[in-house]
What does this fold into?
Amino acid sequence: MTSNAAATEQDRWTRVKGRLRSTVGEDVYSSWFARMDLEAVSDESVHLSVPTRFLKSWIQTHYAERVLTCWQAELPAVHRIDLTVRSPMRCAAPVKDAKATLDERRNDNGNHRGPTELRAVATVPVSASHEALGGSPLDPRLTFASFVMGRSNTLAHAAARQVAEGRRGDSVMFNPLYIHAGVGLGKTHLLQAVTWAGNSGPERKVLYLTAEKFMYGFVAALKTQTALAFKEALRGIDVLVIDDLQFLQGKSTQAEFCHTLNALIDAGRQVVIAADRPPSDLESLDDRVRSRLAGGLVVEMGSLGEELRLEILKSRVAAARVHHASFDVPLPVLEYLARAITHNGRDLEGAINRLLAHSKLNAQPVTLEMAEREVRDLVRPQEPKRVKIEDIQRVVARQYNVSRSDLLSSRRTANVVRPRQVAMYLAKTLTLRSLPEIGRRFGGRDHTTVLHAVRKIEALVSKDLTLSDEVELLKRQLQD
Ligand code: ADP
Ligand code: MG
It folds into this structure.
């Protein structure tokens, strides 16, 4: 494949993802599609991959049609989407390379040594024994050594370290440790770091499981009548780490999760959990489980600040340079990326991968111009999804000097009608809520009323400069 063909294929893939993102919405997109990769395109079919079986079956049952439609909009000839699970070997592969590279480095005055890589060599046996226990595959790059600390993750990092350094028989300080954050903010990285570090000594067993692995492990064990053995195995674990708990589904799985959690906690074993939301928002879990989860230490990791993003980029480049010594990204380019890519750590990683691919394929140094072109689609200036309707109502009420209950009331005087319309308009544009939902949240109004308000304000802002400034100001307050 020539570099040009590769470039068009990637561009096309980028557009398909953009389309998918706008049809399913940001939340759904980041939950299910953020880790989908393009493997190959042939005349009639497209080959995509995802990292887990669970994602594969979920996408196949819920989104197959939509993925196909999005591709057909680009390539009408496509009639089939093949979705496969990427083998975890991808993650394991760097281990071998790292060993070779490490030996080379020794003769190289120790320049640009990758701390991650060093760690990876030391942990090969950990990975093997961990997987033999039925744990989910671990990525050798995700260690404490490569985890960058910043304001948003100090507490989570400290708690994770504490857990990793605990010894068998130590009393447990907080149980469970529950870490929550949006997509790509470092949950998996931190959990795997705990697993690597905790398993580096001989005396403790740390088991890392994704929630889906827990589900499949359990369901499979039930089918083969070895549920007991599975439970016993779990109970022989010193630290149980469960990632992406929001995916835990099904009544029997939950009941079993609840038993396991109680058994481990009561036995003084440490449990570490990550999810994309706090325990109180895990709607599908029953109250007892939720309160048990909330009873330990609950820590949120906030979005990555610009400084932290810059440090992550630097560490990614350093890691890439271990294998590609000629790869270099000038500081101004890194600063640009740190400023422009605000969304999450995965996009930072993606940006570096693209620059690497591009500079390799075209044998060209990385420039600012190239970077701007390559990462255009990762730059999302505004991110509407975290704004809450209550916040909108509060900010709008304050701006127009009315009360929040005025906004929700049925009063129709001009001094409340306009602010109410503005608030509904903002709710529609800044959140992913549907019109009926917004209507409900504004004192039980009909969705047509909301629609009318949205249209009204849309029409007005294009003509009325004062109103348009006010709306801009409100948006800025809500999004900062
Ligand atoms: P999550 O599990 O929260 O969705 P990940 O742990 O998979 O996010 O992180 C996404 C990417 O961002 C990974 O490549 C990860 O290494 C990187 N990343 C996130 N936070 C940090 C950090 N504090 N230091 C280094 N890398 C980070
Ligand atoms: Mg994760």
About this structure: The beta strands are 37-41, 45-50, 80-85, 177-180, 206-210, 239-243, 270-275, 297-300. DSSP finds 22 helices and eight strands in the chain.
